[in-house]
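To: structure subgroup
Subject: Chain for Friday's discussion

All,

I'm putting the inputs and outputs inline so they're searchable in the archive.
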Amino acid sequence: MKVTIHPSPLNGIVQAPASKSSMQRACAAALLSNGETVIKNPGHSDDDQAAIEIIKALGAQVVMTAESLVINSAGVIPRDKEINCGESGLSIRMFTPIAAVSNKEITLTGSGSLAKRPMDFFDEILPGLGVKVKSNKGRLPLIIRGPLLPANIEIDGSLSSQFLTGLLMAYGASLNFSAGDTFGNAIHVPVSIKVRNLKSKPYIDLTLDVMKQFGLMVPEYRNYEEFIFRPGSLQTHSSGEGRAYVVESDWSSGAFLLVAGAIAGPVTVRGLDLTSSQADKAIVDVLMSANAGIAVEAKGIKVRPAEMNAFDFDATDCPDLFPPLVALAAYCKGETTITGVSRLTHKESNRAITLQQEFAKMDVKIDLKDDVMVIHGGNTVRGASVHSNHDHRIAMACAVAALRADGETIIRKGEAVNKSYPDFYEDLKKLGADVSLNKKFRWHE
């Protein structure tokens, strides 16, 4: 799909979409919790749909209504021998240990860039937990057979915290049932997961919060370096009657709306919780640092254009902020420095290189050196023909930067936004953006 954006002033109020990080974790926890769960404010992105299909394949019954998901589960009882995680990095990393709770052989696959992402973590860790595993030289497909038996292990958390999320949930579920129940892995001595170099710690806070709300065993932890599951620390495991979970609004997607307001607003974004554990709420601090016109009001966060200055920011724990921050920095006078480039290699694209290449087409110079990105801002942003590289956040970053560019911007493969924010272009149009979609467009790559 080709998306054309003409420079446009924005004005209005918009609701931030549901968080796929919250939604996918809730789906996993509902699968692992006996009985019925009602998930309110569910997301409908491609990654959300992937999570729903995964828990159905692993035994859950799911009924979708206009405003909620009703999930009934008796634990991990696989219906299918193969599970497709789509292009969702969180799904493959979280659901692989969860699927391994079963004693059935399961093949996990994915599509697009997910097929190229490294999965050798599982080759190294799962055998130590009693799981047979075979990969394609550290890539998908993965063939696993449990049951997973919680044990003392040590892992490297530098690539992604999502691997730890999956292990925490699998441990919490396995150890939350007495012998003879679905999992049958009761323990009588503590077991721990030690972690080196953990990145994106706020996402682990989100994982632990979801586990607690669903009655899974929640570990003690010390400075995010060791997570200890102790016998006798079981939660009261609810039968599921009346259990409900409300999916948070998404700071990752909301960041693009806030930056759009700073570039072409005023825009008021509703639904974003300033007390959330989501790492990307740091966008508020960045906007303040850049001297954007930002105010937290009763009806939401309002952002308007102002004369903005360059800023310095460490995005190591929130790498998904890089794309909206690049769009913001393009309109900030001076050289903006963002640290954490190493976290961008294994995304839907090699995101640092892709940002550099696509924004160069818009006359925005980006330098990359080791773990640092420098954006030279404050000059005229040119409308251009750019490519999403099948990366949802690249498509949104280019669209936001286009709002005050000199000339129209064309985004090829603009449908990439469906991965996380399928209503993105429609929301921009509601705010007044001149956006046209050509869904019949074809381009030989």
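Points worth raising on Friday:
Confidence is low (pLDDT under 50) at residues 178-184, 236-240.
The chain has two domains: 2-17+249-438, 20-246.

D.
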